[in-house]
Amino acid sequence: MSENLRHLIRSYLQSRPRNTAEIVEYARANMDGDGTSIEQIEKLLKNDAQVVRVDLVRRSGVLSSGYRICEWATVDWMKNRSGKQ
After folding, report:
1. Cβ-contact 5, 14 below 8 angstroms
2. SS3 of 78, please?
3. How far, CA to CA in Å, does 22 sit from each of 27, 71, 83?
4. Could you state, in order of their start, the residue ranges of all structural domains in the chain?
């Protein structure tokens, strides 16, 4: 997996947590037709020591009652967040 993609995702997550769908959409829009799959991005997120899974969120669907997807944040964002509470 491209180190550029890893850096792009980390910088996207610096301001706040994002769900997998948002991350995939952002990566595809900014990687110039890289063709990276959802599964590849999920694998990258799970294996990146600087990124943590925050929660599972429900995403509603038009044809279904919805499904659950992960929400991700950087370790730095989590540290800063816990220091403010």
Report:
1. no
2. helix
3. 9, 9, 26
4. 3-76
pLDDT tens digits for range 7-57: 999 999 999 999 999 999 999 899 876 678 888 999 999 999 999 999 887
Long-range contacts of 27-33 (CB under 8 A, 24+ apart): 31/2, 31/4, 31/5
Chain position carrying tokens 């919805």 = 66
Q: Tell me which fold the domain 3-76 belongs to.
A: Arc Repressor Mutant, subunit A (1.10.10)
> What pTM did the predictor assign?
0.81
CA 19 to chain centre: 5
